[in-house]
Amino acid sequence: MKRHNNPSRSEWGQVCLRPTATLEAMMPTVKTIFDAVKKTGDQALIEYTLKFDQVDCTSFQIPAETISEAKAKIPEPLRKAIGQAHRNITAFHSAQRTNPIRIETQPGVQCWQEKLPIERVGLYIPGGSAPLFSTVLMLAIPAKIAGCKEIVLCSPPQINGTIAPEIRYAAHLCGVTQMFTLGGAQAIAALALGTESVPKVDKIFGPGNQFVTAAKQYASQGSVAIDMPAGPSEVLVAIDASANPAFVAADLLSQAEHGPDSQVVLVTTAPEKINEIQKEIEIQLKALPRKDIAAKALENSKIVSFNKTSMAIEFINHYAPEHYIINVVDTNPYVKNVRHAGSVFIGALTPESFGDYASGTNHTLPTNGYARQYSGVNLDSFQKAITFQEINSEGIQSLGPAVEIMAAAEGLEGHKNAVSLRLKSLQ
Fold first, then answer.
1. Domains of the chain: which residue ranges?
2. What is the Cα–Cα distance from 240 to 23, expressed in whole angstroms?
């Protein structure tokens, strides 16, 4: 991990760079995949699955019976853990429901808003080196609560041509309606365009590698929406002199093991703790099954120290982390000054792992600084707000003249006439 001691504001942009390829570098490949899927549909999916996943698939849809049968392959302790996470995620996202808003803005003018579900959503579940069944819970549960009629899931195939039983079990538990063994940019293209077997969806959700992220952004230029640009995972851990080095090292490594293009950042006002933490990282890294992946991610990672808490907080907001762990004695100044973050974890006993799995909050979050503009996935992500209005005779007579004046001022006589005709009919 590269160290930065009291970097000036002019250096923050460089310090905050993520180890991601530019979208421009990946777009030609993504466009080629989209063009092929649009032209030959399932045949293109067969070819790309063989090329990228080394799996020879002629049929991508997982039969419904194998989805439900996956339960028998899940150990009981894991089923119970998934059940507990399911309850907490359901509770938190159910609490996000809102009632219709109705107001009479002036006498005779009724306006209201209702939220309706997006009918057909596509969920992308990473499943390469680590099948992320937890992401099924994070996406399918709010989709079900929102009332989405079709929930279509894509996940890369294992070498045996199917999807990990944990993903299939979570999908069955959460009410996924269709599941396909498809990964990478070709899965996003299938969901965005539709093929002979894969239905076209209205909105695509889910994290993925850099090509998946690029494919989602390419897809959003067409007729499909996306949740956010969610790419390689990242965490920023803020500490003071009170932090337990073992806890800090574990938090950093828990994100580093996601992938070689992940990034972890340590921000501290206690530089004397750095050597202890680095020793802990070395010790814990040796015991990780994914130590090679984590070690590669650490090469892209940073340690940033500041003399003042206020400067540390400013830098953290400039970085806009996906996951933000506040491991200090006095959390108040850090918490009250959060401006840009995907999800925040407060206190020494709150590792990011809780949010990844079972506390109830969603783990599909904006990365690469997009926390400045985007929220993490929530119930509203699966809904659209529609406004309604109804004007009676009192309302058109009291508000109509103002609309006539405004329309005339903009030179839109047709707009004015639509009001004027009605006003005359009431005289």
1. 2-20+232-360, 23-229, 392-425
2. 36
End-to-end CA distance of the chain: 78
70-94 pLDDT, tens digit each = 888 999 999 999 999 999 999 999 9
* Residue 128: per-residue pLDDT: 65
403: which 2 tokens?
């609309």
Which residues 6+ apart lie within 8 Å of 363 measured at CB?
Answer: 134, 135, 138, 343, 355, 356, 357, 376
Looking at every residue in the chain, the average pLDDT score rounds to: 94
Q: How far is CA 84 from CA 74, 80, 87, 275, in A?
A: 15, 6, 5, 38
If 0-12 CB within 10 Å is exposed, 13-18 middle and 19+ buried, where does residue 212 land?
Answer: buried
Which residue out of 93, 322, 352, 363 is catalytically annotated? Answer: 322
With contact defined as beta carbons under 8 Å apart, do 226 and 217 qualify? yes
- Cα 47 to its chain centre, rounded Å, is 28
- Given this model, what pLDDT does residue 131 score? 81
DSSP conformation class of 233: -
Residue 347, Ramachandran bin (φ over 0: left; ψ between -120 and 50: alpha; else beta): left
Using CA atoms, how far apart are residues 386 and 111, in angstroms rounded to an integer?
11
For 22-47, b where at least 16 C-beta lie within 10 A, e where not — what string? eeeebeeebeebbebbeeebbebbbe
82 vs 167: CA distance, rounded Å: 11
Residue 108: pLDDT band (50, 70, 90) is: very high
Fold of 2-20+232-360: Rossmann fold (3.40.50)
Nearest to 355 by CA among 201, 208, 251: 251
pLDDT of residue 129: 64
Please tell me which residue in 258, 323, 352, 363 is annotated as part of the active site.
Answer: 323
- Is it true that 2-20+232-360 and 23-229 share their CATH fold? yes
- What counts of helices (H) and strands (E) characterise the chain? 17, 14
Active site residue 322: yes
- Show the tokens assigned to 182: 């498809």
Say which CATH superfamily domain 23-229 falls into: Nitrogenase molybdenum iron protein domain (3.40.50.1980)
